[in-house]
């Protein structure tokens, strides 16, 4: 039996919540609506021997199956490459003709099927699950993914029949791919990983989950996370899109780097500026990517650059790359910049260097007086943090203007050659510990 398991079933039976519980992650979007999961979500169940079993959360089957549908075909492709299927049904609909037909079709593929009866927390006194035995599946588990009932038993059984692999999931950096709906995020993912794993469509909103994919570059493993498009706020925003947006913002927060996609075929909008503000408020290192340049001629590209120049002035001097994900144009450049930025995030700077840069900054642009008294900044040192944080020690630090704070950030960015890496400056009254 191979190392891959597909979680399959009709819509809204709890597949995504079961996936989250088995992988001990909150990757799949869980909401009480039909058809929330569209693309294939991948995660890992780690067994007692620290080996990994690959799990796929698939798009739910609907009552009216259209075999031309992209989501349906992607689910079938996923099922075909897995030897084991977890078929999920809900306690409140144990016997369903649609389930019977799907299970019958799965049997023709010679797959081992385990029946999962979910939502047993809804089970009433003296209620039986006798109807479920009519599917003729020997291995049946009763679980409540919501309450964790039966989850450990299911995990132990899966670990006993699937050996798992010695696969490392320690990634060098996590990269979130963000932008407005239909900016080309999923296409970029497919191009970077050299396959068509993500569903792409001209219709905005195809991606609603945050989907992970690994990529190796220069012997470093990066995790690419395709996110739902961040649409503009509106009173009529659906419950699903609101949950999806919160999921995306949470993903950005917990990633190391963000790729921010702009659509070259559309003007930079207020939406784009709001997304940039989100990146700035989270102090997130990022690369700005202008996608779909294949749709523009040279004159149009030069015109677009004028809009982007303004955009770059408010984006921590981030690197900007013009590319076409669909035509693979400048993808190699993006990978190089990704690697360079990632390496900069791990770099440690000596206090002597940071203090010299601080003194050069003050010499170039002296601090203003405060009540006829001098503000003195004595030395600088890097603080251990997930972000690049520089602590500057001195006196009368509460009197430092915000404009000077911005000036110092810009000066350090230039001198350290760290475009796209936001600097956080903290001021302290502490005396120099090295003297």
Q: Counting H and I runs of at least 4 residues, what is the number of helices?
A: 11
**CATH architecture descriptor name of the largest domain:** 3-Layer(aba) Sandwich
* Count of the separate structural domains: 3
* Residues in helix, %: 25-40%
Q: What is the name of the CATH superfamily of the largest domain? A: P-loop containing nucleotide triphosphate hydrolases
Q: From the structure provided, what is the oligomeric state, counting identical versus distinct chains?
A: single chain
Mean pLDDT value: 84
CATH topology term of the largest domain: Rossmann fold
Describe the structure.
The protein is α/β, with parallel strands linked by helices. The protein contains 11 helices and 15 strands. The chain has 3 domains: 4-161, Rossmann fold (3-Layer(aba) Sandwich); 173-345, P-loop containing nucleotide triphosphate hydrolases (Rossmann fold); 351-428, K homology (KH) domain (GMP Synthetase, Chain A, domain 3, 2-Layer Sandwich), CATH 3.30.300.20. The strands form 3 sheets. The protein has a 6-stranded mixed beta sheet with strand order 2-3-1-4-5-6, sandwiched between helices. The protein is elongated.
Features:
435 residues; alpha/beta; Rossmann fold; GMP Synthetase, Chain A, domain 3; 3 domains; six-stranded mixed β-sheet; 11 helices; 15 strands; elongated
Describe how the helices and strands are arranged.
Layout: E1 4-9, H1 15-23, E2 41-46, E3 52-57, H2 70-80, E4 84-90, H3 97-107, E5 112-118, E6 140-142, H4 151-161, E7 173-179, H5 185-192, E8 211-217, E9 220-226, H6 239-253, E10 257-263, H7 270-281, E11 286-291, H8 298-313, E12 320-322, H9 331-345, H10 351-364, E13 376-383, E14 388-395, H11 402-416, E15 423-428
Parallel strand pairs: 1-3, 1-4, 4-5, 5-6, 7-9, 7-10, 10-11, 11-12, 14-15
Antiparallel strand pairs: 2-3, 8-9, 13-14
